[in-house]
Amino acid sequence: MPSRSIVTRRSLLAASAGLFALAGCSQSEPTGGADKITWRDHLMAPRPLSMEMFEAFTSSAGMQVEYSDYDAPGLGQALQLAKQSGQMPDVFALGGLELPAATLFEQGWFAALPLSDASVDLLPEEAKLPGITAFDGAQYSLPIFSARDGNAYTWYLSSTVEEAGLDPDSPPETYDEFRQACRAVVQSSGGSVQGWMAKLGAIDHMGSNINNLVQAAGFQGANGLDYRTGEFSFASDPYLTVLEFLLSLKQDQLMLPGSVQLKDSPAITRWAAGEAAFHINDSHVAGVVKNQAEEVAGELRVGNVLVPDKGTPPQMYCNATGGMFWLSQESENQDAVGQLLDTFCTEDYFVRLAAMMGRPPLLLDAVKSAEVLPAYAQAQDWNAQQVHLGPIPSVRNPAVVTVSSQTRPVQPDFGDIVEGLFSGQITDARRALTELDSALSTERDRAIEAAAQKGAVASVEDWSFIDWQPGADYTTQTG
After folding, report:
1. What is the C-alpha to C-alpha distance for residues 59 and 327, in angstroms, rounded to an integer?
2. What's the CA gap between 235 and 136, in Å, rounded?
3. Residue-wise pLDDT tens digits, 65-87
4. Contacts with 293 (C-beta within 8 Å, 6 or more apart), sequence order
5. How far apart are CA 479 and CA 474, in angstroms?
6. What domains appear along the chain, each with residue ranges and CATH number?
7. CA 292 from centroid of its chain's CA atoms
8. pTM, entire model
């Protein structure tokens, strides 16, 4: 049976002291060889399924899979130490590593995956993008999750809205309808149930929610960057419209007090306990509810991404599917790893992954064959219809990767500004966002010059895709 160990601070300190032991493993433990495959990742949700896959492989192939799990920062530290000491695991995820995959490829971290033709054929094109998961015409990583993961669906419980006299089969579609629904809940409950459960404590995640909301409001780009012009446009009308809407919920006392401090999981738990009626979050809230509040899972409902005006179909855009599992260039078991990963490249695996109701599986159609809550199936159906792949500057010009590595954080960032608006420390959203756009543009110009000094030639035009079309994927095109 595969072994399982958890990274500890002590093990990391031991490794850094020169004992050359991988964090999460005993100091005397070998780290590879022809008799077993070593595997390291930070993926909590699919872990039970991975363990089943490892056991099945051991039974059929007669080769042990030694598995160790980490949190993301611990994995990044452990991999860096393993690389320095020449003791890389056979298979690993990249959690906690700050460098992009293209840079790690150049540094010799990876080997091409020896997958079967059937496995490669099963992977959708979005999982085979040059500079992301494929290099020099070969597949170097196996993604297991889809990039089409909307982050701003409207979740609610049927009993909560019914008690407010609302139809659980007709969720709010517009900002005004959402405000009205929140107000009905607050009034009918005498204030014991609030309208909206925010989660601004997880500001990076909240930024993803806002990103989808502004796209549904008409922003033609992602994370403040306009796809067509390549310019930073946080101060554009869609951003200001969405922020005005969200702030109005606080000002009208339709937001749960204190929820601005909550992180993702506590916010979902308290919302599911009935403290607020609506929760705007990603497409896999259902899995959290199933695991943490199963008693209300049967009441779970979901509405589409809110839009300013009735009849406007929401359209969202995402980055490419990133790699998940990578094969070490140092591995002595590359053929065996290929056989193991072939067992992950099956429709059955993705159906079983979908049944966990976490991040959507790479093969979204697998959800249709999985036993899932109806609300989860509905969210994934929307993901397939209205979440599109955006253009990738680094695919067109790999030098963009170097620019990104040279880019320094800009403060205050978008999350800081949102927090400031909700706390009242910032009162002029347009001015703050205009200053952010200017600071980001200045920093990108500086990073382009720094990259040029390293021999990587890029320009602002590399972020501009004038041939991009709203409501469609931009995958194999290179501009």
Report:
1. 22
2. 39
3. 999 999 999 999 999 999 999 99
4. 269, 272, 273
5. 9
6. 4-147+321-372 (3.40.190.10), 150-318+384-479 (3.40.190.10)
7. 21
8. 0.88
Question: pLDDT tens for residues 151-167?
Answer: 999 999 999 999 999 99
- Give the largest CA-CA distance in the chain: 67
> For 21-68, how does the pLDDT look when each residue is reduced to its tens digit (9 = 90+)?
333 333 223 344 568 999 999 998 899 999 999 999 999 999 999 999
CA separation for the pair 456, 403 (Å, rounded)? 8
Residue 418: both structure tokens together: 């949102």
**Both structure tokens of 63:** 């080769």
Length of the chain, please?
Answer: 479
